[in-house]
Amino acid sequence: MHVQTGAGRILCSQDLDVPSERAFGLLCDVARWPDWLSFVRAAQIEGGAPLGPGAEIAIDASIPGGDGAFEVEHFIAGHVLSLIGAYSVRRRLDFRIEGLGLRCRLVVRLDYPAYGGVLGGLFDQVTARPRLTQALAVSLIHFKNLVEGEGVGLGLDDL
Question: Who contacts 153 (Cβ-Cβ below 8 Å, separation ≥6)?
Fold first, then answer.
């Protein structure tokens, strides 16, 4: 796992022992985000629209300014799902699947606003950012366990 942080930005990546198509399939199952994305309490695509550019996703999350609607800004099937806050472009959640042959890597970037100028930024460094960094790192481990374990329990006839 690789973790990198900056002002209002967290970047984490996790290698997965599954093909990229399988990982992207779980990633696009928005209703299952609370199963692995620990700071998300609920998520759903609004209006039953297909997941793609312009689709809105309602997210109940514990990130600064995180509740509310997000819009799919970029979608490349099998590779990229990028969300921006519907009411604030400073809120972003980017997912990228990098194919590595029979394996892949999930890269997640979370951008969020830190309000209050310099003091707000300093306060964020000691409060929200460490908590969110830990939550995102744990979330990628949960994702890894879910996606790698989904084939467990299948019989030979199911493969």
Answer: none
Is the sign of the CA dihedral 5, 25, 151, 103 positive or negative? Answer: negative
* Domains present along the chain, CATH in parentheses: 2-150 (3.30.530.20)
Contacting residues for 94 by C-beta, under 8 A, at least 6 apart: 80, 81, 82, 83, 107, 108, 109, 110, 111
pLDDT, tens only, 47-83: 888 999 999 999 988 765 556 789 999 999 999 999 9
The reply to whether the predicted model has a pTM over 0.90 is: no
Biggest CA–CA distance in the chain, Å, is 60
Lowest mean pLDDT among 17-31, 89-103, 120-134: 120-134
- Rounded Cα distance between 159 and 154, Å, is 7
